[in-house]
Write a structure and sequence with these properties.
Length: about 200
Amino acid sequence: MIEAEREDGQRLLALNEVFIGHQSHQSARYRLRVGGDEERQSSSGLICATGTGGTGWALSIARQRNLAEQLPAPEENRGAWFVREPFPSIHTKVSLDHGEISRASGLEVLSEMAEGGLAFADGIENDRIEFADGQTLRVRLAERKLALVVEVARATTRDRRSNRSAGSRNRGPSATRTLTRFLDPDAEPWHNGRAGGTPA
């Protein structure tokens, strides 16, 4: 999962991607810091994606730039970020336009938008945090992981009655139920009803 945290502690958690930009999707103005590099940019915003988000918005951008091979797979513990339509000018640059996200290396965005700046996760624009002039967002991989929990198939009461009446000891499966839940990073994940699965 991707985490975007503002300097006052407000944060977003995303399964697929975080968007940072202007609420009307017009030009967003900000300073981008990656490692020891920094530049002022004007663009249509930034997309910060996980491996599960690498089949949607991020993939569309990556394909246009022949960068699809750099996208993480769903099971990989890393993310990727892309600047959408960066605009070069006397005051803005475009050299920082994509990169990798991990727990150790992420990116920092400083807003220069007087109004309309925001960030939201997984396409849910109504559940957003404001990103006004002077505010900072730090983006990195989240400690919290999402794991898939699959319940083992069970025979229904009707199946059992049918089996007993037929003199059979078989227990035919009825249906499986798939659940997702957030797990504590120190908790042991479950997969297919057994401990030791791999979190996504």
